[in-house]
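Sample pair:
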Amino acid sequence: MLLINVKEEKRRLRARYKKLRAQCPKDVKLRLDSALTAKVLGTEEYKSCETLFIFVSSEIECDTSQIIGDAFSKGKRVAVPRCADKSGKMDFYYIRSFGDLSEGMFSILEPDPEKCEKVTDFSSGLCIVPGLCFDYEGYRVGFGKGYYDRFLDVFGGTAAGICYSKYTLKQLPRGNHDRRTDILITEKFINRNQ
């Protein structure tokens, strides 16, 4: 049996998928995002959730703006993460509009804690989880800080990873601290993990 260095292999995959995502033509990304958004909005997990935990996407991530907008229009509570520190801890805050966001750590849009209520109940809801690539079992390679792995340890709701199908693999390397999502949603298919 061939042993792999999980950290090294993840570093390699992270670099590869960051590059592939950055090279994706804008028109292709728009089509992928539109189809992926429709898949997310069509799931029973999304339709029935009262609270949506969701990240605000960067340029190379699957776009979440339409999902957030839909959640606002349906009266769902929208909770967005804010990095508490660089060691991998994040807090979620409820936002009422995109105006509640400002540039935060790592140059990503985050909720303004002066305007927003901090979330204290993580017992239910749907959490949309980012990743550079996913495998069919819901494991992911993210940006390497472990924020979502730590969060999923305490989250009691349903976790859904979103990814373009061309960035899904049969199996990814994983370590002891890696947490998988309950669902993987792509623009082409939805995979629910047991």
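The chain has five helices and 13 strands.
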